[in-house]
Structures are given as C-alpha cells and as structure tokens.
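Hi all, a correction to my earlier message: I attached the wrong file for GMP synthase [glutamine-hydrolyzing]. Here's the right sequence:
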Amino acid sequence: MHLAILVTNTDLSDFAHRHPFDAEKFETMVHSVRPDWTCTAFRVHLDEFPPSLAPFDGIIITGSPASVHDTDPWVGRLLEVIRNTTLPLFGACYGHQAIALALGGTVGDNPHGWSLGLKRSDVVDPQPWMAGLGGSYRQFAAHKEQVTALPDGAQTITSADGVPCAGFVMGRRVYTTQNHPEISPAFFEALLAEFGPSFGADVAAAAKASMTGQDDNLAYAESIAAFFEQAVKGERYTR
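and the right structure:
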C-alpha cells in the first residue's frame, strides 16, 4: 500500500522545529500497524502537491491551525483535489473539515469554543473496519471549528461532548475524525506547555486535567489501515 500524506499544518514556529513534523507523525502512526506500507508526504500548505495521484492507493489529509475557510490558494487547490480524486480518503481534524466542505458540507465555529485535551468519542454507527475500537475511544483534540452539516451521502459515525459530528464516512471511500490519532501524550503535553496561555487559562487547565488514562491511538491506527485495505480491495479506481 502506498499512501499520499497531504500535510496542511502551517505551523513553522521554533516549537514545530523542535518536534517531529506532521509527515513524520502520520508515517509513524501508519507504520505502527503496517510497517511495510509506503508513505510519501507533500507539504500542500507550501503548494507542494503530488504531480500525479497515479502511484497512490489512498490519501491522508492532516490537521492544521489554518481554517478551511482561508483564502490562500493552496486551500482552494486542496479542496479541488478532494473533489476530483477517486482514491479513498482519510482526514484528521483539518482534513476531516476539508473533506466535508469540499464535498458539499459546512464547517463553522464550535459554540463551546476550544475542544482541547484527551477526549472521548462515542461510536454511534460502527463501520466494519472499526471493530477494534469498541463503543468509544479516546484521542487528543485541538480545534475550535467543526463540521456543522454533512455532505449528501455522508453519515456521522462518532460523536463527542459538544461535537455532534466527531467523524463521518461516505460509503467505503471516506473516513474521518475531528481529532488527532497521530498526537502522542508527550507531544500534547509539550503543546500545552508552549501554547497553553493562548487557549485561555480555564481551557488549558481542563486539557491538562484530561490527560489521565490511555489514548486509543494504536487501535485507531488499525482502523485506518483496515479502512484503506477494504477500500482498495472492494473498489476499482480510475487513475
């Protein structure tokens, strides 16, 4: 399996340079469950797009502090890629929102403000590739926008406190999460230490208090791999 990772994270701060960039985070996530798969990353936020999608079996779209409503040219180009591709798509956070917006849904402000911390998502419509997740799972969240209406043909599969659509599917070809399956506890702790004040004292304190127990990143990574396997096995794609 060869996946294209479309990196949308616009953070190029000193903090970002002290930690693995998203391309490495997502590749590590994939290799935690499928070490023989190949991942090729493209920094689409710097207008580095794949010259062709022909070599790839699927696409991962990462998270970002950017908004899907931004007018930067790369955002519009990414939405066009989403609309035009026939490859299976997985999106996390920004990727989740971008897929929804590109395919006819809407994205708006979270009325509760920032969702930040180790958050539980409840599985409301389990898909076959999600068998290992059980009825709920925990991932790190860091967002203040969310999907407010789904595209035609999409269905919500997970919900969270204050986030009615924490993930959706479109048939067997689209799978998303509003959260961050690639973020480790160590990275999130560093993120809070660096940027906590910018979220607000109460939000940062609640996020820090949420970091008890275990995330379900490994089980969720397995669900992503199983999603791509069933999509590629079950469909023929025109490239």
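Sorry for the mix-up. The chain has a mean pLDDT of 95.
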